[in-house]
Amino acid sequence: GAGVSQSPRYKVAKRGQDVALRCDPISGHVSLFWYQQALGQGPEFLTYFQNEAQLDKSGLPSDRFFAERPEGSVSTLKIQRTQQEDSAVYLCASSFYRGVGEKLFFGSGTQLSVL
Amino acid sequence: SQQGEEDPQALSIQEGENATMNCSYKTSINNLQWYRQNSGRGLVHLILIRSNEREKHSGRLRVTLDTSKKSSSLLITASRAADTASYFCATDADGNKLVFGAGTILRVKS
Question: Measured between beta carbons, which residues in chain B are less than 8 angstroms from residue A94?
């Protein structure tokens, strides 16, 4: 595709509800990253995939957060039993290369509001 | 945790003036990148400077890197209203991920 696509653009969830956020990276991009951005802050790393392998999930804040990329393209970030502190913008980024340090292409994000 | 810290937190200038933003980081890096984020949008890559480079230019952007001081600066010359955005530095110090700072909010008044 032309760019990284994320859906939904906005998501409102009631506390305790499960949510699933989708990321469609640029075709052919090997690496995929999920970041969480709180209001007025920089993006915080959540997890990293190289193709279908999840190589780093050190940033996931709790076991309520789960990410997958089963076929090495589309990725889903799932948050179970959402809490108010989960409210943030969730950004997905991809890059062509396998290694760290190359430029990332970001989607527009999913703004999650937990009421 | 955030590796980089941008300074100032916010900057307001007149169109046509230059804008300088600074970034400091804590550990050794291979490269440092700058990104721009318009309100409600994702981040857009601006420029990458490698640890063995001291200065890099791209259009109206000039980036410097001082590895001895663990700092970088981004200069935007002849600013335009369209440059209004948040600017983030990011480093690759921590394994597989880019670590971002808290950002500088730039407002260019026309």
Answer: none
